[in-house]
Amino acid sequence: MKFIKILFPGILLLLVGFVPPSHIRKNPNPTQGKPRVSIFDVPRFEAQRSLLYRQIYILLDKKDYNRAEAMLRKWATQFPKDHAAPYDLACVHALRGQKEEAFYFLKKSVRMGFRDTKHIEADKDLISLREDPRFQEILETSRQPFQPRPILDVPKAIPAVPENGKVLITKENLGYDSRTRMFVGLIENKKSEINNPVTTRNDRVGKLLRKWYKEDTAAGNAGDFYDNHDSDHSNLSYKQYPQLTRIEYGEEIRKRNLHYGLQNHLVFNSVVLGNSSTAQTNGALWRSQARHAITTPGGAAKLAIHYRANHLYFYPEHRDHDPGRNGKEGGGYGDVFPANTPYIVISQGSSGSDRVFMDAFAATLAALRPETKTKLAKAGLLGPTLQMIFRRTSKNLKEDGDYFSGKAHPTVFQSKNLDVEKMIQMAHDLRPDKLPPLAQFIVTGEIEEQPGRDYFDISPRQRLFNTPHAIARVHKTTARDYRITLSAETSADLDSQALTYKWTVLRGDKNRIKIETKGPNDPIAKITVPWHNRRAINPGAKIQSNRVDIGLFVFNKNHWSTPAIFSIYHPDNQERSYDKSGRIKTVTYDPSIYTDPRIDAPADWTDTYNYEKGKLMGWSRKRKDQPSQEFTPEGRLIIEKDASGNPTRTTGVRYVPKRLENGSFRLEQESLKGS
Predict the structure, then answer these.
(1) pTM
(2) Which residue has the higher pLDDT, 610 or 37?
(3) For position 327, what pLDDT does the model report?
(4) Domains of the chain
């Protein structure tokens, strides 16, 4: 079993494949002086470059080789260090049957640094070259290690030096990682606060930390950093932990607002606790920073990067997890998070509710044994291990089995369930040869989807996100049962111990949800989740939810892991009915009921489905004060019928957002001319 390591620490700061800004494009001649490029330009460069290559791939699919070649040659002239340009030129010539030109550019690309051997071998654009001996020679060259030169001459990042309990991060300390699309802050590995007291707390927790630290059995917080992202609005009680180093930001970073709000721009080569006690409070897209993260494209992936980079961030739920429905029946909206993850800690409440959790995690980090902390940090497992300790020690758990229930793994945590003394004791008891394993999974099979037929939205948004430790879906398809197969084979143990697997329902109707496995040694689970109506998050709770959570736990004979979590959200603005065979009968879309517009566009109609001898014949659509419309089983609007009622003329339709006067959106149906 191969342990999957994170990219941090020691991340490669390769600035490969970036598009220079306009002032460089206009003046690419090196004899006119070396252009000045800022690290802050790099994300825009990369976005522009990605757009260019997407255009190239579209042109190749259309066999518009002349235009593709012209664009690539212009690009290669302006940016001669980009090895992707000659590679695509090789593809253009190979597709034309121009072997000599194709080999020239393919060889040039590999020589410049294109070393993806598997891609070259499998690329269908290069089929015409495969039988030539030169192709094997190029493949052999591509297998040799090589460090490509950066496209842009961005100054190399230098580590920031901690001093007097602070470290100032400026643009000079930043690199950019193209894989994660995040800035990388480099900090010198200097435990400048190691001679400070481990804590100033005078309670039982403080006494234990001082005792263990004096005995050299507690690591303390020297080398740990605190990253505040709300302009000191809600700070960790860092004075209680004098060994912590505060991260401060320079003017250039602050000017770009990278220091404030959701922390999804930066990752550091150090252990970090951080927070932002802020929220987006205005407009149709109101939400907590935590919901903002998981509903923004790529946002959950960045949370996963933090999780495996020894970072833990804390955010309050604000208005996203309160009693009520649609702003009534208590004033709240219920649990409106469309997914649950182990990546962050979301606190019940608003500004300041995150502080007590940060304090608890700072103490827990300090309590880890030095050798344990070092091993976990090196493997990128501090985040998963701290989350396991935090959840395992909750006062909400009355027996061991509760750890495998929603009691231990809610979306949002209440401070009354914190047991800090128990957390630090469990952390201190961990030994480097008996550490928790890591739960990970991937999707290996899933229900097919066809927007415009199975569901109606502005784009395919049923698959919310796939990340290594959290996968989320929105049940949009009208099929009653959402089926997905997950594999936990990527789960791992630091010491390569054999693992057993446990899949449990954390939230939802256990009597209706099916989880099929071949036993505890089988990493594969076939999961069937039927449509769920709104229900209490747990028996007797005032807060309701439309989400189902399923947890994957792995065991290595010493500890159970923090769960990886599969979530599926059922939009609250839909009222569905199914027949006894599980076939959809009706769906009423109510735009007056709140559903996050980032995951679903509200509609204002009722669809009634028609069957003959068990076969779907189509559906009728009724809006208030409007005549009914009929659709074919494929989702085409019926324009005319013959005397027998069979469609003789149909048209395709598309679904687009329409902005309303209040700033919100409504799903609008448009006929496609000539379709």
Answers:
(1) 0.90
(2) 610
(3) 92
(4) 22-142 (1.25.40.10), 442-569 (2.60.40), 575-671 (no CATH)
